[in-house]
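REVIEWER CHECKLIST
Item 1: Sequence provided? yes
Item 2: Single chain? yes
Item 3: Sequence as submitted:
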Amino acid sequence: MVEPADTETLSFEEALRRLEAIVQQLERGDVPLEQSITLYAEGDKLRAQCQARLAAAEARIQQIVSSADGSASKTAPYPAD
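Item 4: Structure as written out by the authors:
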């Protein structure tokens, strides 16, 4: 199991794979209650992390403004955090 502090350093793809593994474990129902609660909390943290990264990527994409013919007419710089 990934340590909770380590989840922040995972790439989006790694976090998504870990989240999928957690969901599979919980769906099987073969883990004790306390471990299920721990897994659920980790999964919720990973879900929020993935969602935030997707929102940031979407914001970057939305910075590209298209013209009437659908081509990119200009781009606006994405504000750095």
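Item 5: Key structural point noted by reviewer: The chain is about 60% helix and 10% strand.
Item 6: Recommendation: ____
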